[in-house]
Amino acid sequence: MSSSDERLEVIHHEGWSPDIKQVYVPAIRVHGGRTVYISGITAAPPYHDHPHVPEQFAAVPTGIEGQVDRLFRHLDLALEAAGCRRQDIVRMDRFFTHVAEDQDVVNAHQGAWLGGHVPTSTSVEVVRLATDPGLRLEIAVIAVAPE
Fold first, then answer.
1. Which of 13, 78, 109, 144 is the most exposed place for a label (fewest CB within 10 A)?
2. 53 neighbors 102 (Cβ within 8 angstroms)
3. Residue 23 lies inside a defined structural domain of this protein
4. Domains in the chain, number
5. Which domain range does residue 31 map to?
6. Rounded CA gap, 104 and 3, in Å?
7. Rounded Cα gap, residues 119 and 92, in angstroms
């Protein structure tokens, strides 16, 4: 958490050490702002037809590197539209279809994208994502926009 932003307070408990490299923190206390809930974001176009039209997903990269890059660009759009910055994220729920193969790549990209900010997080592996069977990652976010 940025020390200049007093709205968000990282909470640690017994056992914490700054030497441990983590992509999440146990808790964040919010001291003001407006809560923003961002739906699950993937590498697919954020706006697509329902029922799904397979042609709308033809340009989605097949590998995790391309998918995670596109996913975080889509997340930037949602954050900006909501008046938030990356550092305003307090929670990330990550849904992997191939967690063993993809988690390290996603963690590295996420760490660089967040620039040192570390939100709370949960990661789970699922059989598939609802949007398209070729998608490997979906992330839902809760952020706190400044007043």
1. 13
2. no
3. yes
4. 1
5. 8-145
6. 27
7. 7
* Distance separating alpha carbons of residues 137 and 130, to the nearest angstrom: 11
Whether 107 and 139 have beta carbons less than 8 Å apart is answered as no
CB distance 77 to 139 below 8 Å: no
Q: Is the pTM of this model over 0.85?
A: yes
Collapsed DSSP state (helix, strand, coil) of residue 67: helix
Q: Which residue has the tokens 């992509």?
A: 23
CA distances from 20 to 13, 41, 72, 117, 127 (A): 14, 28, 25, 15, 30
Q: Which residue has the tokens 């988690």?
A: 103
How would you write the pLDDT of the chain (147 residues) with one tens digit per residue? 343 368 888 888 888 888 887 778 889 889 899 999 999 999 999 999 999 999 999 999 999 999 999 999 999 999 999 999 999 999 999 999 999 999 999 999 999 999 999 999 999 999 999 999 999 999 999 999 998
